[in-house]
Amino acid sequence: MTDIQAPDQTTGFTVGTRLENGLGRTGTIHTPHGEIQTPAFIAVGTKATVKAVLPETVAELGAQAVLANAYHLFLQPGSDIVDEAGGLGAFMNWPGPTFTDSGGFQVLSLGAGFKKVLAMNSSTVRADDVIAEGKTRLAHVDEDGVTFKSHLDGSRHRFTPEVSMQIQHQLGADIIFAFDECTTLMNTREYQERSVERTQRWAVRCVDEHTRLTAERTHRPYQMLFGVVQGAQYEDLRRQAARDLAALGFDGFGIGGALEKDVLGTIVRWVNEELPEDKPRHLLGIGEPDDIFTAVENGVDTFDCVSPSRVARNGAIYSENGRFNVASATNRRDFGPLTQDCACYTCTHYSKAYLHHLLKAKEMLASTLATIHNEHFIVNLVDRVRASIVDGTFAEFREDFLGRYYPHR
């Protein structure tokens, strides 16, 4: 194995203020395209776009960085085209920092057929070969990598750790992730053990290929490589996976896998107690308000989630008092903003009644305006969480916010 090339002065991580109780902290991730003040919510732009919203608007609503998906961009338009355009940021007209995930999550969703819902009830009967009812397996994992069929046209493709690195180098994101196998909670303990060991072997191969490509592609800025910690809900597997990946010298770490909500903080804490303190930690696919507080308290620096934009397209709106549906009849003649005291473009220019009309009329603008608000709400929430760590009021802010957001819990 070759060590990861030492980052230049434009990359790295600096720890700021620490929570007195807990693993939480503020910090700064330094990238060639700017700094990310952490904790930070990373807006998801799966196919090089945050759905329905201009990149310029994503910046205006406060997002510091965006995350795109290597699997989807490989299939369309092709990572070579993104490379020719100058990389992900240049291709989508986004000047700030960018992330790409490895495609490991899609290996699970294609292979098991569960699509969006992966954290199945852990009391479900375990199996090695898990497949959703009525679904056909589109991906097959072996020691060397994954063979899969495109969900677009059925064409066959092969992802290995090396191929994932090659794709992500072409995409050119500032932060990229090692290729991993993401399991479901329905897999057996024995399968989870084999999967963690396989992900570790793939991580070594990712480091080697990343180092080779970094030396070869000197016309591009250095890309930070994050290893991904798996291990389902088993403490010994999570801790061992974190220790083993830490020994490989990654620039940072992702925490992956299907996680049950009630043990999210416990699992994140296990992992972050093992990871080096001077490296950033990203929680993959988490973004609901209570999960944000739990993740930050237990040492997560950045996280991403499609939820704010996905639920917006169905009219679900985030507010200080919880989520509500603007398409409900009570909003038909409400000419006030979506939420009081919100500074987003939507709330300062449009009413609930107008959003209600757009949704009922099935106008595309409904998705745009609702997404602007929801993304701003979550980005702003995490900004306030960061500020509360600095001024020593995190616990009070968490209690006050969650008490209003989930009043009936």
Notes on the protein architecture:
- An eight-stranded parallel barrel has the order 4-5-6-10-11-12-13-14, surrounded by six helices. A three-stranded antiparallel β-sheet has the order 1-2-3.
- Residues 112-127 have low confidence and may be disordered.
- It contains 15 helices and 16 strands.
- The longest helix has 28 residues, at 189-216.
- By secondary structure, it is of the alpha/beta class.
- The chain folds into two domains: 16-305, TIM Barrel; 316-405, no CATH class.
Q: What's the tally of helices?
A: 15
CATH superfamily of the largest domain: Queuine tRNA-ribosyltransferase-like
Percent helix range: 25-40%
CATH fold-level label of the largest domain? TIM Barrel
Poorly predicted ranges:
112-127
**Into how many domains do the coordinates divide?**
2
> Distance between termini?
50 Å
- How does the overall form come out from the CA principal axes? globular
Q: How much of the polypeptide forms β-strand, as a percent range?
A: 15-25%
Q: Report mean pLDDT, rounded to a whole number.
A: 91
Strand tally is 16
CATH class of the largest domain: Alpha Beta
Kindly report the spatial arrangement of strands forming the biggest sheet.
4-5-6-10-11-12-13-14
Structural class: alpha/beta
CATH architecture classification name of the largest domain? Alpha-Beta Barrel
Radius of gyration: 21 Å
Biggest beta sheet summary: 8 strands, parallel, barrel
